[in-house]
Amino acid sequence: MHQRASFGGDRRLLKHADFQRVYKQGRRHFATHVTVFYLLRPSAEQPRVGFAVGRVLGGAVERNRIKRRLREAVRLHFPAQLTADLVIHPRKSVLTAEFSTLTTELERAFATVRTALARAGGESKDAAKA
After folding, report:
1. Residue-wise over 6-16: b if at least 16 C-beta within 10 A, else e?
2. Domain boundaries, the chain
3. Region of residue 4 (left: phi > 0; alpha: psi -120 to 50; beta: else)
4. For residue 5, what are the CA distances in angstroms to 8, 15, 71, 107?
5. Quick check: 83 and 40 in contact, CB under 8 A?
């Protein structure tokens, strides 16, 4: 029996204060089906992801389905080398989007975040040397 790759609690943002810190101090990347908020955590061992699925997106059944789809897409393409906190805000279109489209969009978003954080990390190191 092979082991299933899980998306455990140590890889998830769960506290309100953590979400607020990402919103206030972080940056954001807009995509078709989601908005990804991100904040660099230099001392982090691994990235953490949180999902913000509000009531405006539908009833409990729809919101839970959105969260299940996003969790699976993130689990499949989670950037383990990224040292950041991410908050993913879905749009209602996540319900009707093809799963392959959703995963491709998240892969692109993660690549954009990785590039932006590398650029920001490089700038802060250069500024510290000056």
Report:
1. eeeeeeebeee
2. 13-125
3. beta
4. 9, 23, 12, 18
5. yes
Span 52-102, pLDDT tens digits: 999 999 999 999 999 999 999 999 988 778 889 999 999 999 999 999 999
Report whether 114 contacts 85 (CB < 8 A).
no
- CATH of 13-125, picked from 3.40.1080.10, 3.30.230.10, 3.40.50.1820, 3.30.450.20, is 3.30.230.10
The 8-class DSSP code of residue 80 comes to T
Q: What angle do CA 46, 22, 48 make, to 5 degrees?
A: 20
Tell me the per-residue pLDDT of 24-47, one tens digit each, with 9 for 90 and over. 999 999 999 999 999 998 776 788
Specify the pTM.
Answer: 0.84
The whole-angstrom separation of Cα 4 and Cα 129 is: 45
Q: Whose CA is closest to 33, among 104, 118, 83, 105?
A: 105
